Amino acid sequence: MPKIILDTDPGIDDAQAIAFAIAHPDIELLGLTTVFGNAEIEITTRNALHILDVFGQPQVPVAQGASDPLHQTRYPAPDFVHGTDGLGNIHITQPSSAPVSESAAEFIVRMASENPGEITLVAIGPLTNIAHAVSLDPSLPAKVKSLVVMGGSVAHPGNVTPLAEANFFNDPHAADAVFAHDWPATIIGLDVTLQTVLRDQDLAMIRDAAGRAGKFLWDTSRFYIDFYASRLARLGSTDRSCAMHDASALVYTVLPDAFQLIAGPTRVINDGIAAGQLSVDTQQEPYVLPAWTDRPLTSAAIGVDAPRVLDTFLSAI
Ligand code: BDR
Ligand code: CA
Hints:
Strand 1, helix 1 and strand 2 form a beta-alpha-beta unit. Helix 1 packs across helix 11 (about 210-235), helix 4 (about 105-115) packs across helix 5 (about 130-135) and helix 5 packs across helix 8. The protein has about 325 residues and is an alpha/beta fold. It is about 40% helix and about 20% strand. It is built from 13 helices and eleven strands. The structure holds beta-D-ribofuranose and calcium ion. It comes from Arenicella chitinivorans. This is Nucleoside hydrolase.
């Protein structure tokens, strides 16, 4: 049974991922660590606590993490994607509990030391907390069972620039620093998460079948579905569906054979016009610049059996 720490910036699709982590019988959710991203850190932490209340799991610890990227100035949160409250502008009540006193990085390092070889770290926001954790304990990659990251895109265009996906764009230095380490790591990026989509009828089924949690997932998804519908309309489609970015990384932990992977030395471009772009080098040529090759191999998903992923998600919820 995967023991999971979920590093998250809730976030509408983060809420879907948290729901799956709680609902799936083979996942033991040890804690949430929060990071800036879809909203500022105070908001993503409040949202994490609120989501746990709504899902009836207020005992799950929440450790607050980074408010800003490692080196660059934080970009304003994209309120047209997740709303000003990060959860689709719904009514959010005061959470029943508070974050623990440890920082996200401290929590990750302590839990990995106490459970050697057992923890799967799933990161579904900017990688700032993971970068802080590995600099706090450089032996962390050897202590975790695996690291699964939602971010980047191997061959698909980006979603915040033509080249960059949002989580890597929001802290490219952190993402690049994380993949310098020898983790058992897998990237689940836009190449697959734009295929694993939730349709409005799926969300209606969740609303009708999953009680208070289902109603919450429906309510929060209204804003997100509208955002995706306007994007799809520009492409000439009248579909109402949204990408299941973050939950797809969670589904990977229980259904890895639904994903087709490649592997290679991995870098994320730090700055300039291509900041946030992912490179997973499967060629591994003897390049002139060793900076491209002096890296451990990281796996990345390039294909997915989307119906199986969707079915696994819906069955659990
Ligand atoms: C990622 O960016 C955020 O908006 C989502 O929560 C997801 O983690 C997708 O690019
Ligand atoms: Ca996220």
